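Please complete every field before forwarding. Incomplete forms are returned to the sender.

SECTION A: IDENTIFIERS
Entry label: holo-238
Bound molecule: zinc ion
Molecule representation: SMILES string

SECTION B: INPUTS
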Amino acid sequence: MEPIKLFQYNTLGALMAGLFGGSMTIGELLTHGDMGIGTLDSIDGELIVLDGKAYQAKGSGDQPEVVEVSDDVTVPYAAVIFHQAEVIFRQRFEMTDHELEKRIESYYDGENLFRSIKIHGEFARMRVRMIPKTTSDKTFAEVATHQPEYTIDNVTGTIVGIWTPEIFHGVSVAGYHLHFISDDHTFGGHVMDYVIKHGQVEVGAVDQLDQRFPVQDRQYLFAKFNSEQVKKDIEKSE
Ligand SMILES: [Zn+2]
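SECTION C: PREDICTED COMPLEX
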């Protein structure tokens, strides 16, 4: 069997250090996976990849805006996978995100492998945020303290994302990194918390991490990272 590859472009650490410029196109990214998460050039909102299509959720005003992203748009950071469900279960009664996470984790074989996560269902409440577009030399953690947040009640949609083992914190964020998009594509973003009414939960296996580096990005090549600060910032911001 072909190994199931999680493809990650750049690292969350580089993003934390302020490397916000996009350097891989959505067109290329989608050849590596049909489901996933990320952000857009100049950290302009949240990237949601679902069923092979890329969407951008950005916050402005009272409501978030969700638009489909064209192939030529670039990303500074993204993680995508051709998701293959290994465990599928129905959640038949209301649960908080913490309760559902516990249930999901009860199906894991140990805690040292990445997992892909897909949850389609009806949510009593969903709270998301969007990183606001930034081109200045602020750090991600500084920008992240002023993020628009939105809450919606009674919404049907899909959560997509990745669960990362503790030992890979820094490469990615340990634990869940999940993004949401409503079925009608009018609401979405980086998942903060939620209450699910009922839905279908899929947990996918990951055999391999395909970590791509921005080898032509001079800013990345010559950046001086403070790895302890980066790890702290990831904890604070994600
Ligand atoms: Zn996110």
